[in-house]
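It would be a great kindness if you could assist me with a short task in structural biology. The matter concerns a single protein, recorded as an amino acid sequence and a row of backbone structure tokens. Could you please explain, in whatever detail you think fit, how the structure tokens follow from the sequence? Thank you for your consideration; the sequence and its tokens are set out here:
___
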Amino acid sequence: MSNPATLVFLKLLANRQGKPGGYLFSGGGAALPAELGRLAGKLPCFYPAATPAQCAASLAELGFSAMPDGVLQRADAAFDVLLDARVEWIEGDWPLQAPPRSDGAQAASRAMALQLVQLVTNDAATLEIEEVLRRDPTLSYHLLKLVNSLAMGVGRKVTSFSQAILILGRQQLRRWLNLMLFAARSDDVRSPMLLARVAVRARAMELLAQAAGQGKQVQEQAFMAGMFSLLGVLFGVSLDALLAPLKLGDATQQALLSRSGDLGELLSTLEAAERGDLAAVAAGLETLQVSALDFNRLVAEANLWMLDITTQVGAHG
């Protein structure tokens, strides 16, 4: 079995505003990927004071620094807006707690995004998707803004929803809509961190499937499973009820509802990493035949992807 001491995981830290602000290194760190240096160039990255000297020195070379005393606070039940003046960073599972009750307009917008996800997942006609987009100015604005930025390279502007859908493609449209479900709502302090967490999980699922030798179709299913795994947390209702109208494939359903099958193995492995259960991660990687270095690299790559994509949907910073 892979040695847990070789594994790396990164705890995403919230800043005092409850938004993604930094990282805390976790794990043994005997196989540090160069991608960690790129991550440290984007956000402050720390290692615990108790980190062994050799590992700490290697992390310092990549741009990490020791976590100062008194600046980190854990919050699992809720985000505390009344923080001690010394606290700069918040760790913990508070983004996974029950959501606040949305006001009518915000609840309707999120429900509209879920309806769009259902239509795209079920391969509905472009006309049906357009009709829903026309009823939500916020979603339609962000979609056209994103697609116009992508179309700049080909020297044209996007002027219609059908053109936007064509340029973006169904797969990328589905990914964007999935992310928009989790994007910031003014009444939900969890949104920025929840979006960041689900984006890392989804991308890491995809990369882990690739590292395990799975083809493109399974990689896409892995991304979707990672993204949908936190839908119940987002809406505060049972996941099986939310999945029913999506008509997902059996493999994705089994992974999400019972953590079974190949996709379930991927999801269980990443959830173990999020909990810091590196022994369970090592066992999962052994089953998947993925090396510790490949895992460490994909963890860093998933976080880099998250920082890029959350900027696009306006939820980072």
